[in-house]
C-alpha cells in the first residue's frame, strides 16, 4: 500500500504524466505543422489550397507547448498567424480587400485572390438562378436566332462596332494606370477604326498591327490598390465583383453610343449589344452541360479569367494558371 505521506507525490506524478501525454497527442496531429516549420506564402504555390488557422488552433496545448519550448520563434509564428487569421470581421474584410498591412502576403494579393471570395454566395446563387431562367427563356433563343439569321460578316461588324466604342474608356484608364504608350495605341486604334473603319464596323487597326489592349475602371481600381473584392452576380450583366460593379459607373459614360437621345434608341442599341455578347458565348454552352454545380463552374471560370485580364500583363506565369479555353475570347458559334 502507498504510505499516506507519499500519496500527494504519487498523484502529482500521475497528473504530470497525463498532461505530457495530452500535449504529445495534440502536438502530433497529422494536419498540424511541425515545430519550426515555415509555411510558404500562397503566391509561391498558387495551386495549393491553404487552410486558415482558427482561434482554437492558436490556443491549443500544442501551440502552448511550442511557445514554451521555442520562445524565440514564437513572435514570428504568432505574427504569421495574425496575418492569416484576422481578429475580427472588419480586419478580415480589410485584409481581403487590401492584403496585409505588413506586406507579408503582398505577392499573393498583388495578383488577386486565386480562389473566389464569395461571402454573398447565398444571394449570388439566387441571382444566378434568375439570370439562368431569363437566359433560357429569352436571351439564349434570341442569340441562336441571331446567329442563324444574320450573316457572319455582319455579326463581325456589329462586334467590331461595340468593341470600338470602348476606345475612350481604354484611353482614360490607361492614362490613370500610368501607361501612356498603351493610351496612345488605344487612341490611334479608335481614330483609325472610327474613320477608315466606317464607325468601327471594320477593324482596320488590327490589320495594320496596332496593339489592342482592353481597359476599364475595374482594372484601374485594382492598380490603385483595390486588389481583391467580393464576388457579385448582377441582373443581366452577370458575374462581377464589387470593384468591377463600381467601375461600371465610370465606364458607361465613356462608352459613346451613337447620338440617339431617345430612350427607345438607347435601349435598342444596348439590347443588340447584349444579344451580340450572348451569341459569342454560345460556344461555351457545351462546357456547362452536365455540370454538377453550374453556379460554381461559371463563377470560378469568370474569376480566373478576370484575374488574368488584370494581372496577366504583370505576371507572365499567370497564363500557365489559366485553362486554354479561358485565355482567348470565345469564337462566335457557327450556324448549324
Note down, in words, how this protein is organized.
This protein has 336 residues and is an all-alpha fold. Among the domains are: 1-23 and 53-85, no CATH class; 121-166 and 216-327, no CATH class. The protein is 59% helix and 2% strand. The protein has 18 helices and two strands. The chain has a two-stranded antiparallel ribbon with strand order 1-2. A hairpin with a 3-residue loop joins strand 1 (231-234) and strand 2. Helix 9 packs antiparallel against helix 10 (180-195) and helix 12 crosses helix 13 (242-251). The longest helix has 29 residues, at 121-149. It is globular. The relative contact order is 0.09. The model is unreliable at 17-87, 93-111, 316-323 and 325-336 (pLDDT under 50).
Short description:
With 336 residues, the protein is mainly alpha-helical. It has helices at residues 7-27, 55-58, 61-69, 74-84, 89-98, 106-109, 121-149, 152-164, 167-176, 180-195, 204-207, 217-224, 242-251, 263-280, 285-288, 294-311, 318-321, 324-327, and strands at 231-234, 238-241.
Amino acid at each position: 500500500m502507498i504510505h499516506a505521506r507519499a500519496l500527494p507525490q504519487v498523484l502529482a506524478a500521475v497528473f504530470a504524466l497525463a498532461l505530457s501525454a495530452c500535449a504529445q497527442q495534440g502536438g502530433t496531429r497529422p494536419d498540424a505543422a511541425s515545430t519550426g516549420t515555415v509555411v510558404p506564402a500562397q503566391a509561391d504555390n498558387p495551386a495549393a489550397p491553404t487552410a486558415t488557422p482558427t482561434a482554437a488552433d492558436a490556443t491549443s496545448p500544442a501551440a502552448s507547448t511550442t511557445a514554451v519550448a521555442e520562445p524565440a520563434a514564437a513572435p514570428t509564428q504568432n505574427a504569421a498567424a495574425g496575418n492569416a487569421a484576422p481578429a475580427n470581421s472588419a480586419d478580415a474584410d480589410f485584409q481581403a480587400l487590401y492584403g496585409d498591412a505588413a506586406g507579408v502576403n503582398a505577392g499573393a494579393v498583388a495578383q488577386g485572390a486565386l480562389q473566389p471570395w464569395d461571402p454573398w454566395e447565398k444571394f449570388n446563387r439566387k441571382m444566378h438562378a434568375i439570370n439562368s431562367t431569363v437566359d433560357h427563356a429569352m436571351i439564349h433563343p434570341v442569340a441562336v436566332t441571331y446567329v442563324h439569321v444574320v450573316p457572319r460578316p455582319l455579326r463581325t461588324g456589329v462586334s467590331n462596332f461595340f468593341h470600338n466604342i470602348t476606345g475612350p474608356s481604354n484611353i482614360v484608364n490607361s492614362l490613370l494606370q500610368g501607361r501612356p504608350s498603351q493610351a496612345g495605341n488605344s487612341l490611334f486604334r479608335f481614330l483609325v477604326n472610327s474613320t477608315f473603319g466606317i464607325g468601327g464596323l471594320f477593324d482596320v487597326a488590327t490589320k495594320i498591327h496596332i496593339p489592342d489592349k482592353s481597359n476599364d475602371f475595374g482594372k484601374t481600381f485594382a492598380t490603385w490598390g483595390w486588389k481583391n473584392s467580393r464576388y457579385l452576380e448582377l441582373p443581366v450583366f452577370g458575374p462581377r465583383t464589387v470593384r468591377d460593379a463600381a467601375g461600371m459607373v465610370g465606364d458607361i459614360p465613356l462608352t459613346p453610343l451613337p447620338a440617339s437621345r431617345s430612350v427607345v434608341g438607347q435601349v435598342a442599341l444596348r439590347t443588340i449589344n447584349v444579344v451580340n455578347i450572348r451569341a459569342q458565348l454560345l460556344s461555351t454552352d457545351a462546357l456547362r452541360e452536365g455540370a454538377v454545380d453550374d453556379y460554381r463552374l461559371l463563377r470560378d471560370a469568370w474569376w480566373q479569367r478576370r484575374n488574368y485580364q488584370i494581372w496577366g500583363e504583370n505576371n507572365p506565369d499567370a497564363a500557365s494558371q489559366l485553362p486554354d479555353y479561358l485565355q482567348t475570347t470565345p469564337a462566335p458559334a457557327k450556324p448549324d
